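Researcher: We're teaching a course module on how sequence relates to structure. For the next exercise, students receive a sequence and then see the predicted structure as tokens, so they can try to spot secondary structure elements on their own. Here is the exercise chain.
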Amino acid sequence: MTNSPEHPKAGKDQSLETPVRVTSSAQEGYAQRIDAGGHELRADEPVSAGGSNTGPSPTDLLLASLGACTSITLRMYAQRKGWDLGSIQVSIALRDEGENQRIERHITFSAPLLPEQRSRLAEISEKTPVTKMLKNGIAIRTILS
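Model: And here is the predicted structure for the students to work with:
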């Protein structure tokens, strides 16, 4: 998260400085080992796509990143405002609409909220770092070595 009115106490996002490393070998098929800031993850494809389903698909990881970023950002904002959100559940679905795809995000709070709070949290959810990256796009530079 970056410092902004929406993320006032957020520190510098370490993922911007530390590369995420993805490694695979021929013996593993589509399975991938991921090192993200010292945290080990796996990715794979489902059996129906020729994988061995040893981890979430890359698309599921992307959607999970959006959901996690949404929940974290809303929690940070609410803590700053002194609002009790209770638990936060973010459900993310990729909707295929012919040649177009869209992401549908559904956010649920266990605590009761005032209409003004809900409205503001909806605004903040549109300003999370991952939301902005997905909506605005980002340049990708590929280097083969």
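Model: If you want an answer key for the exercise: The domain at 14-136 is CATH 3.30.300.20 (GMP Synthetase; Chain A, domain 3). The longest strand covers residues 88-97.
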